[in-house]
Amino acid sequence: MTDRLAELTRLFPDLKLSTDPGDMEHHGRDWTRRWPPSPLAIAWPASIDEVQGIVRWANQQGVAVVPSGGRTGLSGGAVAANGELVLSLDRMNRVLDFDPIDRTLTVQAGMALEAVQNAAREHGLIYPVDFAARGSCQIGGNVATNAGGIRVIRYGNTRQWIAGLKVVTGTGELLDLNRGLIKNASGYDLRHLVIGSEGTLGIVVEATLALTAPPPPSQVMLLAIPAMDALMKVFAEARHRLRLEAFEFFTDRALHHVLAHGAQRPFDDAYPFYVVSEFDAADAEAEAAGLAFFEFCLAEGWVVDGAIASSDAQAAALWRLREGITESLAPHKPYKNDVSVRISAVPAFMAEMQALLTREYPDFDVVWFGHIGDGNLHINVLKPTDIDNASFVEQCEHVTSMLVDTLARHGGSISAEHGIGLVKKPWLGSVRSEAEIALMRGIKAVWDPNGIMNPGKLL
Amino acid sequence: MTDRLAELTRLFPDLKLSTDPGDMEHHGRDWTRRWPPSPLAIAWPASIDEVQGIVRWANQQGVAVVPSGGRTGLSGGAVAANGELVLSLDRMNRVLDFDPIDRTLTVQAGMALEAVQNAAREHGLIYPVDFAARGSCQIGGNVATNAGGIRVIRYGNTRQWIAGLKVVTGTGELLDLNRGLIKNASGYDLRHLVIGSEGTLGIVVEATLALTAPPPPSQVMLLAIPAMDALMKVFAEARHRLRLEAFEFFTDRALHHVLAHGAQRPFDDAYPFYVVSEFDAADAEAEAAGLAFFEFCLAEGWVVDGAIASSDAQAAALWRLREGITESLAPHKPYKNDVSVRISAVPAFMAEMQALLTREYPDFDVVWFGHIGDGNLHINVLKPTDIDNASFVEQCEHVTSMLVDTLARHGGSISAEHGIGLVKKPWLGSVRSEAEIALMRGIKAVWDPNGIMNPGKLL
């Protein structure tokens, strides 16, 4: 133990702390695997007091702090590769309060998203943010990245569901932001500044989450789409005729990997594109609207095959085709692009990007999928086994620099929902102006004057 | 003309500028009438270039700038009483773009809310933020105050509908924030920092507004409520059974003034409290639910009389009872409280506040109304004719100081939707902690280092 850690132990004798190599390895990285973990130590505070104490100690000792949730991030935002103290929220994972009139659930930041969803359901309500990492990711990390996922089209991002937030700033001050009020016009809404700040301003320690009534029964439909330019026509039609819960797309290459990973083949034939859509189907009329939508798209030639789930098990099987993609790609160490444009720009952007990627990645397996109803595409480039990691990333980043130009022409963003972290930092300037970045740096200096909060990430 | 204004004219020969006493009087104040207007001049820029130029000139000359929209604000946020240049957005009032796929409307900041609503309707969509000042207030001011109103219960505040924002900072930099993207995880969301900042960080010059599909046909119902403690029971029942568009309450004193101002009496008898509610009634089933809700509340004794509008004209007449209140009170120079608590805290808070106001204002006419489904109450104290303005305000502020303690005990806010401006500034510390205020000041210094943007307001 270093002197600095000894001092921390002296100040907080009950604080759980580890320098065990296994812990350091495990908690020093996120789902990116690019940076070898090298933290100073891992701390598991059990209270807000301990979090504040750690931050004050870190300021005195000049130790950088990496706030650490489920570490399911894909941008390196939770990596500790430079002697940082990892501050894990794992032990702060309880429900603190439920209010049936306000319809709010107050939880500690270390609670897993799925546990939050379950707690809401126990009260007959839902917390509607949802995505595949639900079992591991934590609500504090969801806030720090403004997590999106598969229901954004209906419910928006995490931002929309945060009624209150307790945050420990970079100087160790505890802020109790908005306190669950629906209306509160009392100056800058610092809550919204913290949401999406990737742990660079402070540490989220508690959140008061707005819940809502469950949606009506829904139907899940899988569509086979013959050509890229039909995708957004199908989407426009679906949005016009149905009340959408989700509208997700993936390519034949994505289906290939998810089938190889154990999912069930949905159609006898193969098609270039697929859509999984879920929509309200409370009554016979709404169900008929779903069928009419399908038949219209079929007649137009925008859809060439389809399946409607007639049981929960079938719905789950159809969803698995989309939700299993990320896991099925993981063994191939994918280089991940997570881009967005306005939905009106999707067709032109996709065409241009496909031309670019076909030209630049002639030999790589490129897998497309994503939340196309939000203008958000995930483009995963799989690492061929005969190329080493470093040169693979180098080649991919070369293409990313070209992709960034395409994005800029279409008014898009290099990070739709993964955040900037370490991975996208070289391209922050492609989506935010110099003036914006200068303001961000200035704001960070106000919140974290000694620069100890997740340094090197984002900015 | 001073030398400073001569310099401005030299730099921008085409800039519309006035020091006419009538203009100064008219544009130097908002709907508060407490501060005698005393601006340096009024400027009406016609372009973003001119706005940037004015701000750069103001920095060089050390002139304070008050951004000015429809000046319908109730907190003094747009008052120019100290030789400021009033920067009016009146001439920047055009629609710039509509995108049917993105469902966004891009407008200049000086466009009136009602004009925005009409432009959306022309495209078969709605911009759902709405309140009585719709004809005069401007979208830039709506953003600067995060305007709320009568549909928040269904659609949220202005914040929820801002997909992109162009802002000129206190140094004259133009920011193009978020550019209409649905998903964009690329650092601090400065858009949300500007929303609600009351012109203290910069000037909103353009907004890209998200639109949505119109709601189904609705019904408007007026309910007579015999006792305060029944109000929130009726609300809970309505929220449970109906899909609410609005749930507004007012007292017999409010009805008295709105009737005196020309509205039509709804019931033969008088009752202590009233609720106007609007809810979806797309089909016979939904209409029946409305009736069942009413009959249930009647049977419980929570409601003692009611009326359902059977035509648009009747609906408008019922709404006028609520929407006409502010105008009917204006001749009485009301001292306005605009407070909020979590809705679970409303009953206890209201009881305590009523006791306080009855004790402290035995001789004043106190009028309650507001968005009770959002936990937001407007309490207007009317000025007796035999008291002068200054001592009336002084007496009211004395009571506000006590009200603030009550609010604090119930976790509430001294400003629900009017903002802090000049009027609520003495009590900012009751709702925001010292640490929060210090962060706000630090952020303001980053955006506006010379302190020229609406100085003295909010902070």
Automatic annotation (TrEMBL), chains A, B:
UniProt KW Protein biosynthesis keyword: no
UniProtKB keywords: FAD, Flavoprotein, Oxidoreductase
Gene3D superfamilies noted in UniProt: 3.30.465.10, 3.30.70.2190, 3.30.70.2740, Uridine Diphospho-n-acetylenolpyruvylglucosamine Reductase, domain 2, Vanillyl-alcohol Oxidase, Chain A, domain 4
Pfam families on file: FAD-oxidase_C, FAD_binding_4
Domain FAD-binding PCMH-type: 35-214
Protein name: FAD-binding oxidoreductase
Lineage of the species this protein comes from: Bacteria, Pseudomonadati, Pseudomonadota, Gammaproteobacteria, Lysobacterales
Highest rank taxon of the organism: Bacteria
UniProt entry tagged with the keyword Transport: no
Cofactor needs: FAD
Protein family per UniProt: Belongs to the FAD-binding oxidoreductase/transferase type 4 family.
Entries under InterPro entries matching the protein: FAD-bd_oxidored_4_C, FAD-bd_PCMH, FAD-bd_PCMH-like_sf, FAD-bd_PCMH_sub1, FAD-bd_PCMH_sub2, FAD-linked_Oxase-like_C, FAD-oxidored/transferase_4, Oxid_FAD_bind_N
